[in-house]
Amino acid sequence: MYVQRNWLIGGLWYRFGDAIIATLGVQFKGFKLGYSYDITISKLSNAAGGAHEISLGYRFHSKPKNAGFMPINIPAF
């Protein structure tokens, strides 16, 4: 699940039987900066703990090509 309010993006994921992932990010003029933390809930939790991830992205603006198909909307992060 993703929620976006203006420039702030938040999300929560559940990977069946394995992990819960919390995401928080910001976007500004084509740039996106995000942070996520994976909380392991499987039997590996003692050995694996959790994982931190930082991501940086940039969306290049280009002219769309008319290929005769409809694009699919994807999550913002």
Could you give the topology of this structure?
Layout: E1 2-5, E2 8-15, E3 19-28, E4 31-40, H1 45-48, E5 50-58
Antiparallel strand pairs: 1-2, 2-3, 3-4, 4-5
Question: What would your notes on this structure say?
Answer:
The protein has 77 residues and is mostly beta strands. The chain has one domain. Helices cover 5% and strands 53% of the residues. It has one helix and five strands, in the order ββββαβ. The chain has one helix spanning 45-48, and strands at 2-5, 8-15, 19-28, 31-40, 50-58. It has a five-stranded antiparallel sheet with strand order 1-2-3-4-5, with no helix packed on it. Strand 3 (19-28) and strand 4 (31-40) form a beta hairpin. The longest helix is centred in the middle third of the chain and has 4 residues, at 45-48. It starts with a strand and ends in a 19-residue tail after the last strand. The mean pLDDT is 83.
**Order of strands across the main sheet:** 1-2-3-4-5
Radius of gyration: 16 Å
How many strands? 5
User: Termini distance?
Assistant: 11 Å
> How is the main sheet built?
5 strands, antiparallel
Structural class: mainly beta
Silhouette: elongated
The amount of beta strand, in percent, is over 45%
What is the chain-wise order of helices and strands? EEEEHE
Residue share in helix: under 10%
- Give the domain tally: 1
Could you report the average pLDDT, rounded to the nearest whole number?
83
Number of helices: 1
- Enumerate the spans where pLDDT stays under 50 for 5 or more consecutive residues: none
